[in-house]
Amino acid sequence: MDAAAAAAAVGTPAGLEEEDFAPIWQEMTGGNESCTAGLASMSYLTCLTYILEEWTGVEDIGDYLSYAFYILWVLFPLVVVFVLPGVIIILFYVSILWLHIYKRKNEIKEAYSHDVWIGAREMLATIWDGHGRIWHGYELHGVENIPQGPGLVVFYHGATPVDYIYFTARLHIMNKRHCSVVADHFVFRVPGFRILLDVFGVIHGPKEACVRTLEQGHLLAIAPGGLREALFSDETYNILWSDRKGFAQVAIDAKVPIIPMFTQNVREGFRTLGGIKILRSLYERIRLPIVPLYGGFPVKLRTFIGEPIPYEPNMTAEELATKTKAAVQALIDKHQKIPGNIFRALMERFQTQKKED
């Protein structure tokens, strides 16, 4: 195929004569005119593949390109599900940056205010509640079950505590109530988190500190399953509390009710690779969250607060712990379809009525 035919096949640009096209075509094809030889012209992609073979000297480069495109097609979703959780981490550090700016602007006011962080809590509650509404269509049900006075909120721990953050933000906006929370000791080692933990009253115990918080009239939240439940429970929503009853003793010592809580689809928003046995063994040795996390899917999240379990002076910690676990399990049975399904949880974003089966 000569330069004229090539020009006719691809269309000669305006102002460019057929004889001017020849050296360009010769340069592209390396002097070989077989790129579009035959009665039917090759596709542009086939021709480009041929040109790359000529330039690189690699034979069958089209096969390599096909493999590369296939690998990218397979890996892209995997990359996305492992990158999305980073958005939550970024939002944490945005919150921390805001707190530092707020602290700097209010250094003078601190001497004249009983709580300089009131404005900061309002702002962060608005930010996190907005994220919950937009990304997860977050809903809070049963808030009327939270007593006016102190109480111990006991909840199932998802792969991340993001549902608790949405809960406390919505509670602050709706009722102007602040809820402290007990966190694992490793959280206090995360760089830059100290100011965030101090402002929101995050504590890591011991039992005396928890009782003191409740005796001061505050709400306190705890997930008895802790990191083990977060990392190694799965879409079957197994409660992994072992024989823990310290939280029940806290409620008994402080003479406060326990409020059970569960968030629907919390395991579909974020999941872990906790099913890998070697990771479980490694966690039991070092007690750090070394299990990879993936997800960040915009599934529907609904938090349900159950009826409070009142303080009974004659009830033992073992009995109260068993009763609390049964109450949380009842919320799971009522509001969560098991096993959990990510696609179904995504589709629930379009439902107007909450599911109770």
How is this fold's topology laid out?
Blueprint: H1 3-10, H2 18-29, H3 44-56, H4 61-83, H5 85-105, H6 118-136, E1 139-141, E2 151-155, H7 162-175, E3 179-182, H8 194-199, E4 202-203, H9 207-215, E5 219-222, H10 226-232, H11 246-254, E6 258-264, H12 266-269, E7 270-272, H13 277-286, E8 293-295, E9 302-305, H14 317-335, H15 342-347
Distance between the termini: 70 Å
Order of helices and strands: HHHHHHEEHEHEHEHHEHEHEEHH
Class from secondary-structure proportions: alpha/beta
Please state the average pLDDT score.
81
Inertia-based shape: globular
Count of β-strands:
9
Helices, by number, come to 15
Instruction: Supply Rg.
Output: 30 Å
Sheet with most strands: 7 strands, mixed
Q: Describe the oligomeric state of these chains in a short phrase.
A: single chain
Question: How does this structure look, described?
Answer:
InterPro entries: Plipid/glycerol_acylTrfase. It comes from Zonotrichia albicollis. Residues 151-266 form the Phospholipid/glycerol acyltransferase domain. The chain crosses the membrane at residues 70-99. With 357 residues, the chain is α/β, with parallel strands linked by helices. The protein has two domains: 3-64, no CATH class; 84-350, Glycerol-3-phosphate (1)-acyltransferase, CATH 3.40.1130. The chain contains 15 helices and nine strands. The strands form two sheets. The protein has a seven-stranded mixed β-sheet with strand order 1-9-6-2-5-3-4, sandwiched between helices. Helix 8 (194-199) links the parallel strand 3 (179-182) and strand 4. Helix 1 (3-10) crosses helix 2 (18-29) and helix 11 crosses helix 14 (317-335). The model is unreliable at 1-18, 27-34 and 36-41 (pLDDT under 50).
